[in-house]
Design a protein that fits this description.
Distance between the termini: 13 Å
Strand content: under 5%
Shape: rod-shaped
Number of strands: 0
Structural class: mainly alpha
Oligomer: single chain
Largest sheet: none
Number of helices: 3
Helix content: over 70%
């Protein structure tokens, strides 16, 4: 693309000296305008990607905190046996695990959907500018 723009600029310089050289100038302006639009759209996409990455990191941190809390709770239950001798820990762990797993699954599905949407938008932007 850069080589084409350089070539058109060279033609424009030659076209100024010859009659009918304005077509290259108009084409060069159009290319410059499209390039600026593309750069703007790519900057917006980069910003959206950065926000998505930040949200993903925050969500992973939240999952890590929840796992750590579950581990602490399990450790506490195993360190202090129940007074009545009832062994409810495996059931409680299974319930907590199912709950956390469902939340994680929902979060990952939402992130995957957002990333697919961003990919589609990026493909559309690139396709529009190359056509």
């Amino acid at each position: 693309m850069k080589l084409r723009v350089d070539g058109l600029e060279a033609c424009d310089r030659l076209g100024d000296a010859t009659p009918g050289g304005g077509g290259e100038l108009a084409l060069l302006r159009e290319i410059n305008d499209r390039t600026k639009r593309l750069e703007t759209q790519l900057a917006a996409m980069k910003a959206e990607t950065a926000v998505a990455r930040t949200e993903t990191i925050e969500q992973f941190a939240a999952v890590d905190l929840e796992i750590a809390a579950i581990r602490r709770e399990i450790h506490t239950h195993f360190a202090t046996p129940a007074a009545d001798g009832e062994d409810y820990i495996p059931t409680q762990i299974a319930d907590e695990f199912a709950s956390v797993r469902a939340e994680i699954s929902q979060e990952f599905n939402a992130m995957r959907s957002e990333l697919l949407d961003l990919g589609i938008k990026l493909d559309r932007v690139l396709k529009k500018d190359y056509m």
